[in-house]
Prior knowledge:
Elements: E1 16-25, E2 28-38, E3 43-47, H1 54-62, E4 69-74, E5 77-78, H2 84-89, E6 92-94, H3 107-117, H4 133-144, H5 160-171, E7 178-182, H6 190-201, E8 208-212, H7 216-219, E9 225-230, E10 233-238, H8 240-245, H9 247-252
Parallel strand pairs: 3-8, 3-9, 6-7, 7-8
Antiparallel strand pairs: 1-2, 1-4, 4-5, 9-10
Helix pairs in contact: 3-4, 3-5
The structure holds adenosine-5'-triphosphate.
Residues 25, 28, 30, 48, 50-56 line the site of adenosine-5'-triphosphate (ATP).
Amino acid sequence: MSRxxxxxxxGSANALELRGVSRLFGALAALSDITLSVxxxxxxxxxxSNGAGKxxxxxxxxxxxxxxxxxxxxxxxxxxxxxxxxxxxxxLRRTYQISSLFAGLPVLDNVYLACRGVSRNxxxxxxxxxxxxxxxxxxxxxxxxxxxxxxxxxxxxxxxGQQRQLEIALALSGAPRFILFDExxxxxxPTERRDLVHILTGLPAHIGYIIIEHDMDVxxxxxxxxxxMHNGRIxxxxxxxxxxxxxxxxxLYLGGGHG
Length: 259
Ligand SMILES: Nc1ncnc2c1ncn2[C@@H]1O[C@H](COP(=O)(O)OP(=O)(O)OP(=O)(O)O)[C@@H](O)[C@H]1O
């Protein structure tokens, strides 16, 4: 599935490219020699059992952790040494397993603040006006995650699943080009999971993503490619149907009670 390196200046550069990325914690190799390419607009699942290295992979891509070795390129640019905010400025977003919302504010204010945080006027102390373009942008994102009916409710009063949907709206603020979703289906009811699948498959086509997800029913329905990890290494890549049918994957993962 690896599609090879492209010139940094070309418009056809990979959205994300990792070359030989490793991350050590003392003697433990949480990531070993990860080489991975994701095209613009591509949607990929990273699957693997507990401790496989999935979250460490995300932390290296976002810049929360520096890799011990290797190179990370984002749309052709070497971002390996960039701090997280420089990667955010270039259109990289991430959702977390743990909520990062303002529970005491309404839904609209949460999204508005996220839009403002990535806009050029982020330090302005002016109160938002009703015709503020950022308010309209926030309302559009709220609609994209199916929360229009509750846009004036306090976040703390929302159901858990709605809070997770709101986190996706925050990740969509400020024209992202690529999003890392960290277990977005965790803790959701079956109905909320179905809604999540609609939200993810309905995102604008130019926005690519990687999703870490233990729920295979969700993960395999919202991606076109899958990377399987085990003990810090990639051991299999393929389409969702290939991965599902692979006996080695079934032994190591699907039969292991993680789905
Ligand atoms: N900050 C850290 N310090 C030391 N070891 C760490 C640290 N972060 C992760 N590890 C170790 O690195 C390995 C990979 O962990 P990681 O969290 O990336 O796995 P994971 O695939 O995301 O697992 P899970 O599905 O349980 O979230 C594990 O052995 C973990 O204990």
